[in-house]
Design goal:
It is built from eleven helices and no strands. By secondary structure, it is mainly α. The chain has one domain. Helix 3 packs parallel to helix 7.
Length: 245
């Protein structure tokens, strides 16, 4: 199996761990009903950007050195995602079996199968949606984000094999198209903007492009703290601007 570069596997990024913690807190605060966190789902956006930041530079490095392997890459992604998903599936299945009606259990079984295949984001899009009535009773609703992430990994791996040295250019073009699609869908009120990979693609790609910029231009990291403060300020401003009255 091809391993990632040593400096990336051994290094512990406390700044990224901190961002992850903040992203989780924002989502949790939103779900428990704190009125100042009406835009809590920005935490999911942050997670997608971080995923792209960590994965894409490694893929490009392996690709440029001729060491990239699609089976090995996808196996590593599964080893990262499945251990987190499996206990949730087991616990949710027990709860659904004990407390759900026949109809509700059938719906749960469908969502469990789709979550196992990392396709639940489209199943939930076809159902009530994240913000629909009764969404708090859908046990695996949160698995939609794992579906988006896994689908991005698969697309990224295929792009790495198909476009090779033009990966950066292709990511830029696809990011622009994805962002435009996301804006169009959001303005039309479509839940597809929330669940699907195509309008989410730009978030993961943007993180990856930033990660490659840091590698190509190490001097950019010197102003990282300035960008971090500005990003934090903008995030807080968005939270208060989107807060429920």
């Amino acid at each position: 199996m091809v391993s990632t570069p040593p400096q990336r596997t051994r290094e512990i990024r406390h700044d990224i761990d901190g961002l992850r913690a903040l992203a989780v807190l924002i989502v949790v605060f939103y779900h428990i009903g704190l009125s100042d966190f009406g835009g809590g789902f920005i935490g999911v956006d942050v997670f997608f950007v971080i995923s792209g930041y960590l994965i894409i530079p490694t893929v490009r490095s392996q690709m440029m050195s001729g060491n990239f392997s699609l089976p090995s890459f996808m196996l590593r992604r599964l080893r990262r995602l499945v251990p987190a998903l499996l206990p949730v599936l087991v616990f949710s299945s027990v709860i659904a079996l004990l407390f759900s009606s026949d109809k509700a259990f059938a719906d749960y079984a469908n969502s469990a199968v789709s979550a196992s295949a990392f396709l639940s984001n489209y199943v939930f899009f076809d159902q009530s949606g994240y913000f629909g009535r009764g969404s708090d009773t859908i046990l695996l609703l949160h698995s939609w984000s794992l579906g988006v992430e896994f689908q991005f990994y698969l697309i990224l791996a295929l792009l790495a094999l198909l476009v090779r040295s033009r990966l950066v250019l292709v990511l830029v073009v696809l990011s622009i198209a994805s962002f435009a699609l996301a804006e169009t869908l959001v303005r039309s009120g479509s839940a597809y903007a929330f669940f699907a990979i195509s309008p989410r693609f730009w978030e993961l790609a943007a993180g990856g492009l930033l990660g490659m910029l840091h590698i190509a231009r190490p001097s950019v990291q010197r102003i990282g703290w300035v960008c971090g403060l500005r990003g934090s300020a903008l995030s807080l401003l968005r939270q208060f601007c989107t807060a429920q009255p």
